[in-house]
Amino acid sequence: MSRISRRRFFEGTGAGIVATAVPVKGQQPARPAVPRTTIQITVNGARQKLEVEDRWTLVEALRDHLGLTGAKIGCDRGECGACTVLLDGKPVYSCSQLAVWADGRSVETVEGLARDGRLDPLQEAFIEHDGPQCGFCTSGQLMSAKALLNRNSHPTADEVRAAMTGNICRCSNYNRYVESVLAAAAAPATTASAAARRKA
Amino acid sequence: MTTLNSVGHPSPRIDALKRVSGAATYTGDIRLPGMLYARVLRSPHAHARIRRIDVSKARALDGVKAILTRENCDVVWGSGDTRNKRYLFNNPVRFAGDAVAAVAAVDRHTAEEATRLIEVEYETLPFVLDPEDALKDGAPEIQPGGNLSPNNQGQRQPEVLRRGSIEEGLRAADHVFEDHYTSSHINNAQLEPRVSIAQWEGGRLTVYASTQGISNCHTEIARDLELDAKNVRVVCQFMGGGFGNKNQCHDFDLMAAMLAKQTGAPVKLEFTRKEDYVAVHGRWPTKQYYKVGVRNNGTLTAIQLRGYSGMGPYRKGTGGIAGIEIYQCPHVERTVHPVLTNMAVSANLRGPDYPQGVFGLESLMDDIAYSLKIDPVEFRLKNMTRKFNDQTPYTSIGLEDCIRRGAEAFEWKKRWHAIPGVGDRPAKRGAGMAMGSFFSSLGRSSAVIDVDSRGMYHVHVGVTDIGTAAKTTMALIAAETLGVPLEKIDVIWGDTDRCPYSVGESGSRTTTHTGYAVVEAAKELKRQIAEKGMPRDNDVLTATANTNPTVPGMARYSFVAHFAEVEVDTDLGHVRLVKYVAAHDSGRVVNPLTATSQVKGGATMGIGMALHEGLLYDRASGVPLNAGYYGARVMTHRDAPEIEVLWVETEDAYGPYGAKTLGEPTIIPSVAAVANAIYNAIGKRVKDLPITRDKILGVLA
């Protein structure tokens, strides 16, 4: 994975406005065959076989080719966290991972949070405490929070902020997100009545 | 204030489940069969004439379906410049980021690759970034006729507000204070990057837009593409924020439509985050020169402002510098110059004219209060507005309560130091406050409500809900008027084929404009039900309302006062927010849960504007240096303090259930409150936004 640094990776794929105006002299316009690789990934518990272009990011594969659009592309350069998913249980920016790197690994997205028709306590708390405003960063916030609670079931407010600081919310509803995560951590479990009210 | 059944009770968003489960469909989530992807090539130069564009290599690339340049596309984007003609692709290009070409291809990688194969020969031209420099003799002319953008009457004159005689006011003063302030270009930076999907079915165009106002977007697409309005449909189901940069139709909507037309396939045009930062728009940077006259007892006699706003090369916003209206003062003169420059375009961002103007004015007022040894809170209470422009009574005004109750909740007396910068510890604390007001307009909107035999009420409104909880607000208002539980309300939104006109989520107008129409439609429906009974079987009853209420002879405003305590590390220049109280008069609060979130968000954005944000330019090349979230340093979880929200609910006889406006007032005094707190902590004034560490260390040196 370390063969390509993130910086080089972005230099290769990003469309910097300066770079775009200066085409390389004598470059052959004919389209070279795009290398493709077949990968096996487990997405939200289901094993998937997928042929990907080597240049696809994980978030592209999830959104455009597996139809899982819950993870959002906010910046496509590892700055905002809207694309956060869990890769083998760890939160990653899926815009900064190539899909081929996920071969043989397990990915969890926001679509996998609810289980058996029951919302995750975090989702319940996000609703009750008004976590999402525009909602575009929400999936990423949820996945970072999920990773946190998986390793620390009773975090302090500061620990929540630290764990989620890579998830930008331009509506700046940070107070509500922290409040939501603390409430979810405090909830013994999703109450049956709440779950019944909100069938996922 | 009477208690109501639905309005005024904290209610989770009616669409919250979709927002937390990944099921909410934002524009970028839509994939249509056979859809192509489009990317835009942009100018690397601040100002240049395009000598030649060669697209042959790009066109030869496998998978490329269409390329638009000025040579084959002369569509004028009407809302892109309200004074001059702005084409989708301009020659000369007038800022680093001006669109040069757009490519549609089978996938986004191919489209991106194709933009790199387009060869452009530029002849660079002189450029200017600073609005005052742009008005000097010999400055590069950015548009024909000069760089001072015409005023509302079409004259090449600055915008002027005059009351009394400024000379008389300054003569009547015991002291005259003068100072100047600057503010930066700040990007809206909403999380959802710009995207548009266009699809033609015969002669009819559907645009899946990412817009704050489907109605405006619809009208303007039809206008710019010369289509009959009935042949255009605009859909926006979920929208990832905007804060003022998507009120209208945008160039990317038009480019997607033109590419879709050429290729006969649906086209999704996506902006990168960097493009979003440089090529849409941000808050206009300003330079503000104030002169204020005051008597020994602290009474204001004169306020004069000469201001310059950098609009970028296309005039898309007012360029206003507001704030003076929050003070009572007999002699006022405000002269603001909206100036064309070669920076990124400037236009609306949350409270467009306000936070930067309030920053300048409230910084100076703070200095005046200290000079006269008057507590800044008392100074505001003494001089705050009582009538709009000292003339027109307000429909309701809770400003005094916002200041008094806010100060009390904040424990102002305990946190504020009469001598700023007192103490010799490296970590110094200080408190500051500022106030603001915002036009709470009423105006034209429409709503349609029908009821079926199952007792479900379908509320059709042309809102998109950009994060303001507008859908929930409309549902609460409908439930209240109809006297039914919230669960009986179904809101239909975000589609011009299914919804009537709405002003759009700009100017904080949805609750007051469209909410009012919902009230009237619901009343009409109740009248029909009383007359005919509830519908049976397959029948429905339908009520419509087209409303345009006015306020006779009065001004309708929301009011706000914010209080901030900071701790400044005088060794490092770092600022930490310790306590923050936001007191708001927005009339009756329709949904305290979501309204409180909006205040928390707006205040936090303002803290970012005060401390971090600003688009920096390389003066030698005219190219922006820090586009993007890291570079612009927007607020993060780690930076955001707890914002305590306090409601001053005034009784207002107008608007739906007395609701006034809210979304934009939330940011208005926050920048100034933080700036004033920093002054109180360190005893030195930073007059240029953002108040970064280097500037703090600079004034302390």
Protein architecture, described:
- The complex is a heterodimer of chains A (200) and B (701).
- Chain A is an alpha+beta fold and 200 residues long.
- A five-stranded mixed sheet of chain A has the order 2-1-5-3-4, covered by helices on one side.
- The radius of gyration of chain A is 19 Å and the shape is globular.
- Chain A has eight helices and five strands, in the order H-H-E-E-H-E-E-E-H-H-H-H-H.
- The longest helix of chain A is centred in the last third of the chain and has 14 residues, at 138-151.
- Chain A folds into two domains: 38-112, Roll (Ubiquitin-like (UB roll)); 121-197, Orthogonal Bundle (DNA polymerase, domain 1), CATH 1.10.150.
- Chain B has 701 residues and is α+β, with helices and mostly antiparallel strands.
- Chain B folds into three domains: 16-24 and 443-547, Aldehyde Oxidoreductase, domain 4 (2-Layer Sandwich); 31-125 and 191-241 and 246-279, Alpha-Beta Complex (Aldehyde Oxidoreductase, domain 3), CATH 3.90.1170; 282-441 and 553-700, Aldehyde Oxidoreductase, domain 4.
- Chain B is 26% helix and 25% strand.
- Chain B contains 18 helices and 28 strands.
- The interface between A and B is large, with 74 and 84 residues.
